[in-house]
């Protein structure tokens, strides 16, 4: 089964799970503080989501035969970039109001894993309360965030050591490459071909 994220409060003892639907999220039978935060946040960003949806939907009505023009693709990229910037801005504002929120910590984790390093995410992490930042999972996230900062857009690419198909180390000393551009194409071991 596929589920959306859901959060369990320590006071929750019973959940409602609807197994008749393919996509479900267990629902607490009583409202907890995390669920209340989620509802409050969804209301907080409602206007942003509505504006984005209207703009995107208006574009969809002009798409012919499910093919987008280069101008439409450019519009979508700019629309998504603007949404991302506005979303992070609102998330920051909300974290300032809820610095001890478990939900917003995980929202930060999800954004980072979906889009990579952004300095705004580091700033939002620093707004979280000390108990979250200093927890084991908080330290693990910060470590992951700082590692991703090394490969952030605009950072010089570091020398890397990878294993080849015979599991021998191959050192890529990028300082010896005297080219204007270098394409590094990463493939995960589970990717085809």
Give a structural overview.
The protein has 193 residues and is mainly alpha-helical. The protein has one domain (2-150). Helix content is 50%, strand content 8%. It has seven helices and six strands. The protein has helices at 33-44, 46-60, 70-97, 102-115, 119-127, 130-133, 136-150, and strands at residues 2-3, 15-16, 23-24, 27-28, 160-163, 169-172. The strands form three sheets. A two-stranded parallel sheet has the order 1-3. Strand 5 and strand 6 (169-172) form a beta hairpin. Helix 2 packs antiparallel against helix 3 (70-97) and helix 3 (70-97) runs parallel beside helix 5. The longest helix is centred in the middle third of the chain and has 28 residues, at 70-97. It is globular, with a radius of gyration of 21 Å. The chain starts with a strand and ends in a 21-residue tail after the last strand.
Summarize the model shown.
The protein has 193 residues and is mostly helical. The protein has one domain (2-150).
Which secondary structure elements does this structure contain, and how are they paired or packed?
Blueprint: E1 2-3, E2 15-16, E3 23-24, E4 27-28, H1 33-44, H2 46-60, H3 70-97, H4 102-115, H5 119-127, H6 130-133, H7 136-150, E5 160-163, E6 169-172
Parallel strand pairs: 1-3
Antiparallel strand pairs: 2-4, 5-6
Helix pairs in contact: 2-3, 3-5
Please describe the structure with a list of short key phrases separated by commas or semicolons.
50% helix; two-stranded parallel sheet; 6 strands; mainly alpha; globular; 193 residues; two-stranded antiparallel ribbon
């Amino acid at each position: 089964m596929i589920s959306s994220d859901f959060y369990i409060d320590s006071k929750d003892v019973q959940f409602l799970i609807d197994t008749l639907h393919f996509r479900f999220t267990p629902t607490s039978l009583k409202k907890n503080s995390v669920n209340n935060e989620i509802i409050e946040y969804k209301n907080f960003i409602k206007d942003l989501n509505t504006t984005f949806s209207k703009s995107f939907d208006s574009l969809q009505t002009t798409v012919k035969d499910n093919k987008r023009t280069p101008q439409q693709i450019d519009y979508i990229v700019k629309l998504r970039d603007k949404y991302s910037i506005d979303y992070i801005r609102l998330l920051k504002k909300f974290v300032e109001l809820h610095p001890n929120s478990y939900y917003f910590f995980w929202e930060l984790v999800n954004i980072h894993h979906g889009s990579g390093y952004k300095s705004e995410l580091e700033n939002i992490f620093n707004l979280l309360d000390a108990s979250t930042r200093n927890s084991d999972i908080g330290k693990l996230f910060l470590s992951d965030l700082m590692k991703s900062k090394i490969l952030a857009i605009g950072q010089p690419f570091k020398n890397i050591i990878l294993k080849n198909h015979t599991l021998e180390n191959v050192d890529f000393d990028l300082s010896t490459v005297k080219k204007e551009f270098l394409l590094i194409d990463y493939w995960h071991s589970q990717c085809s071909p």
